[in-house]
Design goal:
The strands form four sheets. This protein has a ten-stranded antiparallel beta barrel with strand order 3-6-7-10-11-12-13-16-17-18. It has a two-stranded antiparallel ribbon with strand order 1-2. By secondary structure, the protein is mostly beta strands. Helix content is about 5%, strand content about 55%.
């Protein structure tokens, strides 16, 4: 609901701003396809003024979270494989498969720039990034605190044919499937002040405004077969980063060519919504003792929610080259890098404890997001 509301507000803002700018600039009289104007103003090329629009396709890469185990990190358990054979159980799968990849998306900028003063709105959306992994015979170590009197443990069951010797049993899934998904989008609104051209022919713009970025991370696990058949859990980490933004943009024209470099810093306030839901051992039956099957625990379901606030500073750098095709239209290509600190990643906040698992908020700010890649598109009057 939150995302839908934001998108509706964006659409309304764009329609309103677009209508106002179009009326103010008498856009129907602009000669979009006239030959490019590469004349000079004094000793420097002219800087474009008025309504502008930029559209870019994105090919961006998102870094993966810090690698951890599927299971209690660093934990081990002494388990019985038979009445006479024991083993030290360790986690056999990690989240190293979440290495990110290049995904497509789009970005557009729209605004109105006068000789010195201007207004600039920008939005980007990266299409959903996914990583998947399926592995056979996966061991998962859970924290298993004692309960009852005398102390018992949940992950125990009979290891003898007579069903009287109750000991720790391993948690080993016949197959484990894990998936990670990232949604990333953002928007910003800035006031822009363009300074006089410097002696080298370049222009410097100072900007100040507000920015919002949403980084949502989902981690899903499905385990089938084995002692905890069937189990599933989904961890969700939503990062809503908003705050004031300052930055600069420098550009210079060389005939038909324009080179620009833009840097921004956001004092980000991160409102994190953390969620964990799922079930463990849906096929367990504690009422019937079976050799090598867990008997001290039945099927469990759980839903947990937490909210945390963090300071998440953000830095962005954009570099672009454009080639003037007509008086108003230019083709462009560039690179963008974006870094956000103190980001919650879904695979890092899971507390692997039976019988109900949980959220480990101590790791809600252990990660950062680094997004970078190429951009390509066109601009009108930029």
């Amino acid at each position: 609901m939150f995302g839908k509301t934001i998108r509706l507000l964006i659409l309304a803002t764009l329609v309103s701003c677009g209508a106002a700018i179009a009326l103010g600039q008498d856009i129907e009289k602009m000669e979009w396809f006239a030959p490019p104007d590469i004349s000079f103003f004094g000793s420097t090329p002219r800087a474009n003024e008025g309504l502008f629009f930029v559209f870019e396709g994105l090919a961006w890469h998102i870094n993966g979270p810090g690698k951890t185990t599927v299971g209690k990190e660093g934990a081990t358990r002494l388990v019985y494989l038979s009445e006479t054979v024991t083993a030290v159980e360790t986690n056999s799968m990690t989240t190293g498969f979440i290495d990110g990849g290049f995904e497509g998306g789009y970005r557009f900028d729209v605004g109105n720039q006068g000789r010195h003063h201007g207004l600039h709105f920008s939005m980007f959306n990266l299409l959903r990034e996914r990583d998947n992994f399926i592995a056979p015979g996966v061991s998962v170590v859970f924290s298993d605190p004692p309960f009852g009197a005398p102390p018992r443990y949940h992950l125990q069951g009979p290891i003898d044919a007579g069903l009287t010797n109750i000991q720790n049993l391993p948690v080993r899934f016949t197959q484990l499937e894990a998936r990670n998904r990232v949604d990333l989008w953002g928007l910003e609104l800035n006031y822009v002040y363009r300074m006089h051209p410097n002696r080298f022919g370049g222009f410097l713009e100072l900007l100040a405004g507000t920015r919002y970025v949403e980084f949502d991370d989902d981690f899903f696990v499905l385990g089938t077969g084995g002692t905890l058949d069937e189990s599933r859990w989904t961890s969700i980490a939503e990062n809503h980063v908003i705050g004031p933004q300052v930055g600069t943009r420098w550009f210079r024209k060389f005939g038909r060519w324009t080179w620009s470099a833009e840097s921004k810093f956001v004092f980000g306030f991160n409102q994190q919504n953390l969620k964990l839901e799922g079930f463990l051992g849906s096929n367990l039956d504690p009422t019937t003792l079976v050799q090598y099957q867990i008997s001290n625990m039945g099927p469990t379901t759980f839903v947990y929610r937490e909210h945390e606030d963090e300071f998440s500073p953000m830095v962005e750098l954009r570099i672009a080259f454009s080639y003037q095709v007509t008086s108003a239209i230019a083709a462009r290509v560039g690179w963008t890098g974006m870094w956000i600190d103190n980001i919650a990643r879904a695979s890092r906040i899971i507390d692997y404890e039976v019988p109900n698992m949980g959220i480990d908020v101590s790791h809600n700010a252990d990660d950062y997001a680094f997004v970078n890649g190429v951009t390509f598109g066109f601009d009108l009057n930029r």
